[in-house]
Design a protein that fits this description.
single chain, alpha+beta, Glutaredoxin, 6 helices, 10 strands, 40% helix
Length: 243
Amino acid sequence: MVQPRVIVAGGIVASIGLAVFAFFVWMVPNAAAREVRAACTQLAFDREKGHQGVPPPEVCNGHNCTLPTVAPDFTAIDHNGKPVKLSDFRGKVVLLNFWASWCGVCKNEKPALDAMAADLGSDDFVVIGLASDHTWTDSLTAITESLAPGTPIKGTGPSGDITMKDALDAYRAGLPHGTSFKVLLDPPAGDGNIGAIAASWGIKAVPESALIDRQGNIRAYFVNKRDWNTPVAETCLRSLIDE
């Protein structure tokens, strides 16, 4: 016969075991969430200003932005001349990278951005490079120089300048499989050097980037370049993709 006190003792031990298990189950996701927040916080920290990166006030109707906040929609042009809206990617996580061909820092950032996009790219995640350039010739040339350095780009224009055909030939030779991120053109107004869309966001210098969730909300904002192909960046980005 089993003694009653044995049954009671067994029940107590079982209860303690269940409590420990429940605590463990509760702790794991909370610890994971803290790790994710820490990764995104570390990645988004603006070292020049000494605080978290936030979008310019223009993104928030002239007020200081607090995140999350709705990303203003826009229409840019793809390489086929087709208009593409930011809202076309609703349902996906989007990393929107503002850059320009004349920006050396932007070109230095591109290899890590391309590697990250290749690693994380899926039906749930897309990287968009919005180029503040007047022409596709400038954008394609900069991408080729950044991702396929050493690729010859011969200018055959009237003054030896690079034509669109020259830029395309070099791009296809240096990057036969293209890039892992999408590039859209955001031409500046007049003689300016910041694209019209970037300017409407209040951006005065590039690169800057916005991490946008599936519902179209900016969840993190990055001022200046980042090393996107690092464990911290992957943890931050994957957290939103897997959310």
